## 1
Amino acid sequence: MCKSKTKTAALDPAESTKSTSRTTNRPARTAKSSSLSSSTASRIPNKSVSSSSDPSTSYGSSYNFNTNSTFKDTSTTSTSSKTSLTSLRASLPEKTHIYDFSEIQQSTNNFLANRISSSSSAWRCAIRGKDAVVFQRRFRRPIDAAEVGDLLSVICRSHHRSLVKLLGASISGDHIFLVYEHVSGASLSHCLRNPKNPKFTVLSDWMSRMQVAIDLAQGLEYIHHYTGLNLDLVHNHIQSSSVIVTEPSFNAKICHFGTSELCGEITASKTHQKEDLVEKNSKIASISSHRDLKVEGTIAYMSPELRSEGIATQKSDVYAFGVVVLELLSGEEAMRVEFDGERGEFVRVSVIESAREAVDDESGDLGRVRRWMDGRLRDSYPVEVAEKMMRLCLDCCHVDPDQRPDMRRVAGKFSKFYLESRTWCEKRSVPTDFSMSLAPR
């Protein structure tokens, strides 16, 4: 006991007072429990309570005195709690920024920084310590800074691993500068059609393409149905050049999420305000206002109703998704020019038309499907799964938008295709449970 008293005397006076006051309020214990408490107290380090106001560090050296249970030393668990809280804070989304235009100019070196491509108004830069990409877009309708701020605060609550994160925006005149996080990788169109080496592709095996397809399906499903914002969000920019493929796992990320709403291309509507609850006159006014907007995009990814009426909907996103996956399977462009020997002229061929010809074989022979698929896969894929994917994508590209499937159904089907492909690959994997000796006998 003398040894215990000597160590206890070395404690900080304030700590000693707190410990004494807490133990006096505790119920009576046996001699064995008192001895254990005394010996445990003698091992308390000489530390004062942290004065930091940070909740993750203010309890780094605290000790729990539970009046209903035994005295519990939390010095070990506090370290792991501090680490978990720090990692949790790092994983939480940052507050969306409304950048000043001068800050955008400074970050991009007055827009002399490296452009992402020569044909786009996009610059890679560092802004507020973040590696980012700045995209310049023109407003499609009059919109003020307050409305942009409201839209940003709503849209930036959405976070998904298959979406490129939106960091903030800035307004200058009739242009908006959207700041996205920079993602290392290459666009899907470049991965499939490398102009420097057309015969090579990093997506040379079936599972890498299935990974891209499932990420794209789940990302678009999240945009349409699971943002939790009570809004009917539309991407309106789904194409192979807007999908980034990352290494080494070949995960896909969708770019330009939120661009259509922030640029005024479409107006995000509440999900509970369905068209069947809106009067006919308001419908006509809404359609006419949408028609006044200029529709931009690559014609190969635009659904028939989007080209004719100029109204972007979730069904038009489904159409574009079907085109992108058909590109992924065939390796061909969405719209290409070929020479027709019978006509003696060049004609445009859509990947939708060629895919429909490949699957519309009444004999049931899958040879046409194999000839349509990308030859760089070297026939190493489950052709039955490939055919089912082609048919589902053709359903997504149906002329009638009401006949196109919902993205929840599409994502569920693609999850099933992914599992079937994994099973197929496991059955045909190279065996590794054997040994071979080359020694002379």
## 2
Amino acid sequence: MMKTLYKEQGAQFRIELLETPKMQEFIETHADALNSGFQQVKMSDAMRQRLQRSNYIFSGMKTFHELNEAFPSLIDENGNRKPFEQFLNDVRKIDSTYNRNYLRAEYNFCQASADMAAKWEQFMQDGDRYNLQYRTQRDEKVRPEHAALDRVTLPMSDPFWEEYYPPNGWNCRCTVVQVRKTKYPETPHDEAMALGAEATGKDTKGIFHFNPGIEQKTMPDYNPYTIKRCRDCDIAKGKISLVFVPENELCAACRIVRALANADAKQTRKYAKPLQGTTINTTKFPHPINISRASITEWTNQPNKYLQEKNKMLLRINEVFEDKECKYLGPADPPPGKEKERVVQHHIFSTKVRGEEQCIIVWEWDWGEYTLHSISDHPEKIRKHIKKK
């Protein structure tokens, strides 16, 4: 990441740097680290995708702050550009702060949020048939202010759970369970709210006043890398207007990160436009592979079980081909009904998306040109048509 930043020219940090493949790869790596905390947690696919999207946005905004903080280190006290080794040495402390000191607490919080979001999803199946009860771990590590909430019991529909559903801070281990209505008396609403306000009193900014199950996010919109106004911003609510004018660098960065997180066909085509007319050159294939407008359209329109990941791959397609997991499988006949005039044959490459095999398809034309076509999440169907040697 810092190598990419070092290549930047000019006196001001460019927000557009977040759109580069190297930065996207870094953001995805950070998000994947957070996602790994709830891989085994049972939840719906829709909930999992929304939580993963939340982690991507959080990771993107964190990356923006780290880059913005590191950028001034490019220049020495005389206004001259530092040698790379000196720059790298100067920013090691920044990198360590963001990716070692902060990451553990962030990982724990995202894991706790995902656990509680999955629980909320289960609670929704019963609604107010049961009450919900707040519980701490009841050990010496429990914060006194959280201990006061232990055994608070209220219906799921009570607004208390919108404000004080765990986690209620960094490294919070509190949880919530369903209990029979006849087993525990309900806590008066006003008493519960007062206890909740006391428990989160140190959170003067109100960052942790959110329910990850209701909002379907691992991190609230207002967090250490955003500002208070982000709570009510239309962009945070998914209303990204075409006429939106960013008020500041944070808003501009947020817009870019959220667009990349969506990774839908329209957004991906926009960001992939510079690829049109370029060529993929890889040692795994003896011919240059052209990227056309049709390549971008077909790739982004292709259905896929991992839609976002598939679309993001296009933005770093050269790196995908050079990855050690990408292997050339050989030429293949077009599947019946999929023939196209002047396409002589297909060429198939195997790659991995979330550890699962997918096949990249390259078309060979009768005039000797090779173009990127698409990607398929049904490798078993594609492999059937590979020509035997």
